[in-house]
Sequence to fold (247 residues):
Amino acid sequence: MNTTVRHLIVNADDFGLTAGVNRGIIRSHEQGILTSASLMVYCPAAVEAADYALKHPGLSIGLHVDLAEWIYRDSQWVPRYQIVPTNDERAIAQETERQLERFRSLLGRDPTHIDSHQHVHRQEPVLSVLRQRAQELSVPLRGFSTQVQYCGDFYGQTGEGDPWPEGISIEGLLATLSNLPPGLSELGCHPGEDEQLDSVYRLERLAEVKTLCDPQVRAALASLNIQLCSFAKLASSAPDPKAKLTS
Fold:
């Protein structure tokens, strides 16, 4: 890797959530700076997302493990749905394997990376389960890989779910890009074009698409000497990756 150049993966979560979310991700890839996406394998538009990925190998695809979702209500986070208890290691392992097999059936290959819906893998026992699967597959686990630094600053809400449009504005993204550390970073994002989406993060997705596709952003990457890449460009040879970028 050229150490004078910062490398950046721009990865969209929630691929497959709905057809409208897929449209936003696809537009951000074809017209913007998005290079990778994470697939929710059992959502309504997962097959459509996988079909697109098979025809467009330039978009690398990871597994977005979906175990539960929470919303902020009455000054606390409350569950919106739960697929398995997030404190049951055996259930988590079984569900993760089920979703991984579904990913393989859709795409005919393993994911290029692993992360989770609402970052549930930051807590145990989900962390141990997903870390083991990532090591077995020799792919990065978001936030716990020696090769990729995660940046979650491009987000349109606060930690309590209040709007924060500055985080997904052009100016906000340019500031985030300028502050990226040396080496390889992943910038998380949630683009989408589904105005009827049943989600607390809905209109922000449309704003993300506009920002990711704005010509000022691509121009800034060049001026900041930041080179776009994807998880598919990572070559890994051991359980805990000692990877490098390939051409």
Notes: The chain has one domain: 6-245. Residues 89-107 form the longest helix (19 residues). The longest strand covers residues 6-15. Residues 235-247 have pLDDT under 50 and may be disordered.
